[in-house]
């Protein structure tokens, strides 16, 4: 997600797991394993969340 700016949905598809699993891994599990990486990914998640309605509108338009 850091290198590609992938969304949670894109990461879930790549790893063959659900979105909830990715979200849980990022918000809970990664915090214990690598707090610096978790902080960086959290910023990406916040960015994606702020763009969510824009992305949704584009998808609906398509």
Automatic annotation (TrEMBL):
<dbReference type="InterPro" id="IPR014208">
    <property type="entry name" value="Spore_III_D"/>
</dbReference>
<protein>
    <submittedName>
        <fullName>Stage III sporulation protein D</fullName>
    </submittedName>
</protein>
<dbReference type="Pfam" id="PF12116">
    <property type="entry name" value="SpoIIID"/>
</dbReference>
């Amino acid at each position: 997600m850091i290198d590609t700016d992938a969304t949670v949905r894109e990461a879930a598809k790549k790893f063959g797991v659900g979105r909830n699993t990715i979200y849980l891994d990022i918000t809970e599990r990664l915090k214990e394993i690598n707090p610096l990486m978790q902080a960086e990914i959290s910023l990406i998640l916040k960015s994606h969340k702020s763009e969510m309605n824009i992305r949704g509108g584009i998808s609906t338009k398509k």
